[in-house]
Amino acid sequence: MAKILIRTVDGGNALRYMRGDAVIVRPDDHVWGRYESLEVWIAEGRDRAEWPDEFAVLELTGLNEVTARAYLEEISVIGAAVPEMFRRRKFGADIDALYALLPAAKKAIYANTRRITLSWGNAQVRAAFKAKA
Amino acid sequence: MALKTIKASGGDYTSLSAWEATLAATLTSTELAECYNFALSDDVAISGSVTSATNYIRIYTPLAERHDGRSRAVSGTGFRISDSTGAGTIRHGANSHVRYEGLEIEQTGSSNTLQINNTLSSGSDIRVEKCLIHDTLTGTGYTISAIAANLNLTLRNNIVYGNQRSMDTRGATSALCENSTFWRHQAQLGLVSGTELSCKNTYSGHAGAASDDFWSGGSPTGNNNASSDTTATARFTSSVNSVAGSAVFTSVTAGSEDFSLKTGTNALVDAGATLGTVTDDLIGTTRPQGASYDIGAFERIVSSAPTGTFVASLDGVTMAASGQSINVGSFSATLAGVTLAASGLVGPPPSGTFSASLGNVVMAATGTINDVGAFATTLQGCTMLATGTVAPHATGTFAGTMGDIVMSATGYVGIPPTPHGLFQRLPKNPRHVQNLP
């Protein structure tokens, strides 16, 4: 199972990460840092309200790490003399759509973990990842 | 100033990308990413934040966590960011004020290891210091591609090696390269520049057939450089030609690179110019060590004397407090706040020893007490330290030993036991007490 760290807030300009952009992909056994994971933040005894709330972790069963890395692809400036970034990510995840797929119990968990666990085998989950216009 | 840690576990972030994602579109303070000793398999783009001379980005590894001048694959230590996807391990967008220090940056895919190609703001300031930058590619690409318009690049105390060309700075406004080492395992160009390059105390060399160590389509400035071919003196003043890497470096073998300077006669030792901007080397050794600066990223440590002995002794000291007290009183002898230090500088070569000893110490509290009293000898608050530095890639031993210590509290208090003394067994039946003498 791949874990994907995604941004939950928009950056200040087109070259920054936007809400739903995958930032990094990690294997199933990865342990996040305190600013990456609300769960880690709380487990270390910190105040929930002070977490910056800029990331969520997607745990997608059935999705391997190599496949997940496809969502890290950038968009480059077409015709540039040297490689130049145009947008951080070619694809984005619809966080609201993924959240809506969670059963009520897992929605409650999300509030205190910022973790979404779903099956990649679910067509609605796959459909939540879309190429940007 | 905002400091965040990048660690394999227990830190603020586990990747530079996640940390970079949180940077503001316009920085209002300096942003520091402190990277710890672990291998990070990622690429990172530094892009989309407006920086300035006072609000810049600094990505660094603290001294205790960084490489020892060799790659993590060889030494097993240091922070390494390594990318195999071919996008470029570190890629700049338009962030104009960024500093990298003490990192190992590796590319095992098909792109540049460090890429600064996109137009920067006028007055930019990109610094790369004390980094290991290398790749496994072959061909005519560049380990460092630094061709961005408006780029002002400063490189100091870096080691750059691989199979392809070392660095291209054509297109940059300025590129200052000081005390760095460039090596190619194959016949490829080294530093490729126009007039923007100022190069000092830098070595560029390669194995294999002829290929310019310093190639230029213009007229770079600089002095006290060295090359394995004849391009050092062709481009720069006070420079040295035909310095084979195998003759001056510990190892130029692919996979076990070690660019520390060989002992004995070495063409790079004391061949550099004094640079006010460079006060130490890749691993923190103060420059210069000998008569002058060495060329390259390493400064070879020079012993202050071939042999020597430094002795500080405290021997045969007797401290006594004695006398007579008719009533309550005390006698004390104290030896406190004593520091025994053996410090200095040895080699290389030869080998040496630092030792501080406190031996044959007798602590005695003796006397006679006829009433309530106490005998005590105390050894407390003692710190035994064996600290120091063993030269890069040498072996050494640090030991703190406390042995053969006997601590005893013995003696005799009060009047000798008699049938009437404290140790007499009393009868269980209280009625017999009155019969005692």
- Give the domain tally of chain B: 2
List the strand order in the largest sheet of chain A: 2-1-3-7
Sheet-strand content of chain B, in percent, reads 15-25%
Provide the helix percentage of chain A: 10-25%
What structural class should be given to the helix and strand makeup of chain A? alpha+beta
Calculate Rg of chain B over CA atoms. 33 Å
Number of domains of chain A: 1
Distance, first to last CA of chain A: 28 Å
Rg on CA atoms of chain A, Å: 15 Å
| Nearest-integer average pLDDT of chain A | 95
Q: List the uncertain runs of chain A.
A: none
The number of E-state strands of chain A comes to: 8
Question: What CATH architecture label of the largest domain in chain B applies?
Answer: 3 Solenoid
How would the blueprint of this fold be written?
The complex is a heterodimer of chains A (133) and B (437).
Chain A: E1 2-7, E2 22-26, H1 38-43, E3 55-61, H2 65-68, E4 75-76, E5 85-87, E6 91-93, H3 95-100, H4 104-113, E7 115-119, H5 123-127, E8 129-131
Parallel strand pairs in A: 3-7
Antiparallel strand pairs in A: 1-2, 1-3, 4-5, 6-8
Chain B: E1 2-6, H1 16-21, E2 31-35, E3 39-41, E4 44-46, E5 57-60, H2 72-75, E6 80-83, E7 90-92, E8 97-101, E9 104-107, E10 114-116, E11 125-129, E12 132-135, E13 142-146, E14 152-156, E15 159-162, E16 165-168, E17 174-178, E18 181-184, E19 191-193, E20 197-200, E21 203-206, E22 214-216, E23 221-223, E24 226-227, H3 231-235, H4 245-248, E25 249-251, E26 258-261
Parallel strand pairs in B: 1-2, 2-5, 3-6, 4-7, 5-8, 6-9, 7-10, 8-11, 9-12, 10-13, 11-14, 12-15, 13-16, 14-17, 15-18, 16-19, 17-20, 18-21, 19-22, 20-23, 21-24
Antiparallel strand pairs in B: 25-26
